[in-house]
Design brief:
Blueprint (H helix, E strand, L loop, with lengths): L21 E5 L7 H7 L1 H9 L3 E5 L5 E4 L2 H26 L2
Antiparallel strand pairs: 1-2, 2-3
Helix pairs in contact: 1-2, 2-3
Length: 97
């Protein structure tokens, strides 16, 4: 059986449009800071970590750029909705709406 491996293609650089010289760097924070987990609780910290983009570096123009997967975009949307809801509840409590 001759199976081809499912190799993920490197994304194209948004600055110079080159896709041949893109290098994978990873996420900015591979290990999440414990202080953030203590301040914003574990579920919010997990959502925050999941929504961060994967960082790539273009060797042609020497710039870094990030690419979010659809799961990371979904986590970013969920985090935005949760934080907006919490903010509106706090405003309602303070101003008595």
């Amino acid at each position: 059986m001759n199976r081809k491996k499912n190799v993920k293609k490197a994304p194209e650089c948004p600055h110079c449009r080159s896709s041949t010289s893109v290098k994978y760097i990873g996420k900015r924070y591979a290990v999440y800071p414990a202080g953030c987990v203590a301040m914003i609780s574990l579920p919010f910290a997990a959502l925050h970590q999941a929504q961060q983009p994967v960082i790539y570096s273009c060797e042609t123009c020497e710039k870094e750029f990030g690419v979010r997967s659809w799961i990371a975009s979904m986590c970013q949307f969920i985090l935005f909705v949760l934080l907006a809801t919490i903010g509106l509840v706090i405003l309602a409590v303070f101003f008595g709406f």
